[in-house]
Amino acid sequence: MKRFSVLGLIAVVCSYQAGAVNVAVGKPASQSSNWSAGSTADKAVDGNTETYWSGNSCTATNADPNAWWKVDLQSEHAVDHVVLINREGCCPERLLGAVVRVGNSQDIASNTQCGNPVTTAQISASATITIECPDDTAGQFVSVQLEGQTQFLTLCELQVDDGTSGTSTGPVNVAVGKPASQSSNWSAGSTADKAVDGNTETYWSGNSCTATNADPNAWWKVDLQSEHAVDHVVLINREGCCPERLLGAVVRVGNSQDIASNTQCGNPVTTAQISASATITIECPDDTAGQFVSVQLEGQTQFLTLCELQVFGEGTETSGSEWENVAVGKPAWQSSNWSGTSTADKAVDGNANPQWSGNSCTATNQNQDAWWKTDLQSRHTVGQVVLTNRQDCCPERLLGAVVRVGDSDDIASNTQCGSAVTSDQISASETITIDCPEGTKGRYVSVQLEGKNMWLTLCEVEIYGATFVATEAPPTQAPATEAPPTQAPVNPDATTMIPTLAPCEYPAGVKNVAAGRPSRQSSDKKNKDSGSENAVDGDYGTDAHSGSCSWTNKELEPWWTVDLGETKDIYEVSITNREDCCPFRIKNAEIRVGDSQTMEDNPVCGMRVLGRMTKENPIRIRCGCEIPMQGRYVSIKLIDREQQLTLCEVEVLAT
């Protein structure tokens, strides 16, 4: 396993966004001098995070005045964070005072500094040092410099995460830490788990490589524990000895424990691949999916050694790793009701229409400390709260709103999530995302205009969390029959518990108005019968290869849209998802309805498709119940995803 000490890993972070991509690997790098021929600047962007000098993957300069290291990203990137991996076993203090800069100038001193220089206290306190960068930090060059010192500069790796892809949910390595097995163990220190320990050290001395005996058809296998769509598999080969042992290795992916029956990815490993690099990438065919990934020396009697295996794909998350909107249909209250149609339950009806005419927004009177609250009916772990603000009027009313989560009916005593809503958040989007501190738990979620005398309006509140199973019960709560004691007097009607919403009853005459209508999409899948018209052809077949489904290429935020010919009253959009493979690719789909051909100008219908919803077929998104949304154009777009969009049929229920 990888050897970390307190000083082993230093992460310098600028506005971190989960899922961002390291754009520094393999890029041109330089430094002020080379301590030796084996400590050149490129060692910090070779993808190897080994922290010991013996791993031959750390840079070192001489003891230069203002020693520096720099990487050229070859184009401008928004930079979220820079990760410096420091040397272990010797001399971690050499990084003391290091300054990280990002910018477009070759003169690194003129570029933007991220935070303060690394301090002794930071190095000794934690392996991870977080340094915030100014907003909108971007540049082609990233540097590390010991400004004002005469000292050796050593880096064992530098990773630059690109903010432009920070919200992408494309393929990630899904193999780390998963159960692994192999045909035999050459020794007790070469077991199968060494290939999924997250350590890419390529030398045997790093104690992170597997090895079997010289078995006939030697094999290695990982169980991803659920089916995943697999894009490609990366094999990291041993260096210093015997790399030819991987010659002819075959990678397979599938759902069978009998690995020989699973789908083969690419061709067997070649001599050219082995001689070119320790990192060998094997591309998988489109729609490759499975729970098991294997490597086998088919038809050989040979040792099989892997120093790491990375499986890049995505799958349907389990309930333990996926946040769901747990607020829909839950009881809700507010400090008062502006009208009989602006009650608290409108914010948890599943309809995120931000227009007042959609009859799905709450409104209080102009109260001091106006508040809204929902009871999740059991304790939940809450990751984030998403507020949908009104757009046709008065969005500034949400300025300063505070979100709290906790077990107390007295909302003022619960944990605050994030900061109060700002003007920038209001002007940027109709949806405002509030992140909660890690580990936030509670039964009640509230939104309050603390210290203000103002109307409070919410068009939807989405609470992303999971049911919390506690070792002991949370404090018992009294029934919520009156407002928190710190609040102004409450309209009695506002404190009545709202029952779970009943299903919609659509008026007579509602029918599918999308069949046969003109449609478009962002691209057509290459070499497939994949046109946008397949989604409105009346064929409900769920095999994407049959020619009955629309299908785009893999791209960032793919989209599909249909023109209904005239403005319709739209109640629901129904998506028939593919079932032959990868139904979870539809996750995060957003539907918009309106009269503009520019889909972003139209309001959102209902909620985005959640991970758990991809297991349903069809997927039904409600746009309106008693009061429908109106529009001529209906669009479906994968938000913040680089993925293929496949639709086997789209129905628009309208009059």
Describe the protein in words:
- With 655 residues, the chain is mainly β.
- The chain has four domains: 9-165, Jelly Rolls (Sandwich), CATH 2.60.120; 173-315, Galactose-binding domain-like (Jelly Rolls), CATH 2.60.120.260; 324-495, Galactose-binding domain-like (Jelly Rolls), CATH 2.60.120.260; 511-654, Sandwich (Jelly Rolls), CATH 2.60.120.
- 3% of the residues lie in helices and 34% in strands.
- It has three helices and 42 strands.
- The strands form nine sheets. Strands 1, 2, 3, 5, 6, 7, 8 and 10 form an eight-stranded antiparallel β-sheet that branches. Strands 11, 12, 14, 15, 16, 17, 18 and 20 form an eight-stranded antiparallel β-sheet that branches. Strands 21, 22, 24, 25, 26, 27, 28 and 30 form an eight-stranded antiparallel β-sheet that branches.
- A hairpin with an 8-residue loop joins strand 15 and strand 16 (263-265).
- The longest helix has 6 residues, at 120-125.
- Residues 1-20, 163-170, 316-322 and 468-502 have low confidence and may be disordered.
Weakly predicted, low-confidence segments = 1-20, 163-170, 316-322, 468-502
What's the domain count? Answer: 4
Radius of gyration: 28 Å
Global structural class = mainly beta
Average pLDDT figure: 83
For the sheet with most strands, the description reads:
8 strands, antiparallel
CATH class of the largest domain: Mainly Beta
Shape label: globular
User: What is the percentage of strand-forming residues?
Assistant: 25-35%
Helix content: under 10%
Number of strands: 42
